Amino acid sequence: MTSRESIFKVGDKIQLTRIDLEDQKTYPSQILDILEEDRFMISGPIYKNKLVLIHKGELLRISCVVENKGRYAFNGEVVERKYDNIYKLEIRKVSEIKRYQQRKFFRFDVSIPVIKEFVIGDGDDEEVLIEECRSKDISGNGLKLYTNYEHNVGDIVTCKFELDGEKLEVKGKILRRENVDTFEYDYALGIQFIDIKEADTDKIIQFIFARQRKLREKGLI
Fold first, then answer.
1. Tell me: domain 7-100, CATH 2.30.110.10, correct?
2. CB 31, CB 75: distance < 8 Å
3. CA gap 24, 169 in Å, rounded
4. Which residues make Cβ contacts (< 8 Å) with residue 145, sequence separation at least 6?
5. Does domain 104-217 have CATH number 3.60.40.10?
6. What are the tens digits of pLDDT across the range 157-173?
7. Residues 6+ apart with CB under 8 A from 168
């Protein structure tokens, strides 16, 4: 079993998935404190500048991506909801920590059309910039995307694409931007998924495995 202390630490960026809900919404969060062996204090989720009210007794999936190792996750029950200067939740761990295999994060070179949406401004001045892009590669936790818009590192975008007939819509954070010299695009973005359902991650992995199998059958890898 994976040691909690070696994976989840104070200050870690995490994801909360509301597994009690049918649509299993996911939100970014952070570990604020480790109270006991199985209790954590985390920041409450905020969406579009509004608090997302999580109820006492609700089950959440808490996950954290560890570089070069994979994603670790456990289920937690909301013990208490607090508003001491900031919105936060006390979580009790109710399952073992599970490690998703590193192979899920293997990057597979593939060029697929991606619709990228980026929100600028807020309130009445909010505008959504929509651009037709193409991927350079994809993995279970992100993709490399060609674009002509000069994003900043840290920008949050929504990527819409299709894999073998399955439509996916995933929110991602831009970790890298580099200039490229291609016929159609000026930049390549390194994007990490920050709001993705576990089922959608599985669809991406299944797509990669299927493509790899076809290439092996053809003797290309």
1. yes
2. no
3. 14
4. 114, 116, 133, 134, 135, 136, 159, 188, 189, 191
5. no
6. 999 999 988 899 999 99
7. 159, 160, 161, 162, 200, 203, 204
Residue closest to 47 by CA, chosen among 87, 77, 13, 20? 87
Domain ranges of the chain: 7-100, 104-217
Written as six digits, the tokens of 171 are: 């929110």
**pLDDT over 80 (residue 52):** yes
pTM of the predicted model as reported, rounded to 2 decimal places: 0.57
Q: CA 52, CA 207: separation in Å to the nearest integer?
A: 33
Q: Check whether 3 has a pLDDT greater than 50.
A: no
pLDDT given at position 211: 86
Q: Tell me, what's the pLDDT at 99?
A: 78
Cβ neighbours of residue 3 closer than 8 Å, sequence gap 6 or more: none
Q: Is the pLDDT of residue 78 over 90?
A: yes
